[in-house]
Amino acid sequence: MGTVYSGSPEGAGLRIAIAVARFNELVTTALLAGARSGLERHGVNPDDIDIAWVPGSFELPLVADRLARTERYDAIICLGAVVRGETAHFDYVAGGAATGIGRVALESGRPIIFGVLTVDTLEQALARAGGHAGNKGYEAATTAIEMVNLLRALEGEPTG
Ligand code: INI
Fold it and tell me: With contact defined as beta carbons under 8 Å apart, do 97 and 61 qualify?
């Protein structure tokens, strides 16, 4: 059998940036709390977590790109909430964020995590930001750690 690669959930020593949208702040502050908790529970030092607030989810890709270019971070987590009921340009905002974040990941070669809720109602967003459907910020944090370690494993580097 060939090699099986997987990323460990160990976050000690990792440096992480979180870009978070202020739009729908009630939701995004809950996503941010979930992300911090997910990072810290997996060993990331709170001093190694930097936060950048952006106006809305549409701005996340540009700021993620700038954060990646600093080369200070092993991964960047993007958090936002795009609610269909609140805007006629839902598809542009949600699609722009998704496409842009994916592009930054491929161009930077680093994990740039899509922690943007795209939902129909504020209730659905709140349910996914610490309500009955969990916290997508927490999930984004564990995805970030796993991806950093997976990429290191693929490159043959030892990981925690
Ligand atoms: N930004 C969001 O993050 N969520 C939304 O639901 C939203 N709505 O409804 O319009 C939203 N719009 C702002 C957008 O992200 C940009 O900040 C704005 O278009 C300026 O570029």
Answer: yes
